[in-house]
Model the fold of this input.
Amino acid sequence: MLNMALFGPPGAGKGTQSEKLIAKYGLFHISTGDMLRKEIASGSDLGKKIDEVISAGHLVSDELIMSIIRKTLAENPHEKGILFDGFPRNLSQAALLEDLFDELHLPFFGILSLDVPREELLARIVNRGKTSHRNDDNETVFEERLKEYEEKTLPVARYFEKKGKYHVVSGTGTLDEIFERLVHLIEKK
Ligand code: AMP
Done:
C-alpha cells in the first residue's frame, strides 16, 4: 500500500503530477482544494464561507479539512493507497494525518515535494488563471497564498524531514521529466 502526500507551493504542479501518479499506481486521490471548490460550486452556506477564505488566500479550518478527509476515506475504496494533494497544510494537520494513519493501522510513505523557483510559480499561476476561473489564481492572491505556504506549510517539510519522510525533486522541466523523478524516488525506496 502506497500512502503519500504531494507537497509544494501554489503553482508547483501538484494537481498535474497527482493525476499521473494516480494512474500509474492506482491510488485514491484526495485533493482538499478540489473538494472545497466542489462545496463552493454547490452554492451551500458552507461553500460561501469557504469561498471567502480561499479568495483571500488563507487556509480553511483544520476541523473542516479533517472531517472532509475522514468522510471521504470512509466512503471510498482505497486499498492500493491514498495520494493527498494539498494536505497536510500546517503542523497540526501533519500530526492529525499521522494520528489518522495510526488509527487505521496504515503505513505512511511520506511527502514528495516539488521544488520550483518563485518567478516560475507566479508565471504559472497567472497563466492558469486565464482558464481556471479560480478567484485565487491571480498575482495579488498568489502573494498571500505564498506567504501562508512559507509561514504555515513549510514547517511541515521540516517535520517530516526529521522523520526521514520528506523527499524532494525538481519541479521544473517537462511534465514527463518531473514525473520520472517522482517515480524514481518512490521505487528506489
Ligand atoms: P489548492 O487547490 O490545494 O491550491 O487549495 C486552494 C485553497 O484551498 C488554498 O489556498 C486554501 O485556501 C484551501 N485549502 C486547500 N487545502 C487545504 C488544507 N489542507 N488546509 C486548509 N486550507 C486548504
Observations:
- The beta strands are 4-7, 28-31, 82-85, 110-115, 166-170.
- Helices lie at 14-25, 32-41, 45-55, 62-75, 91-104, 118-132, 139-161, 175-188.
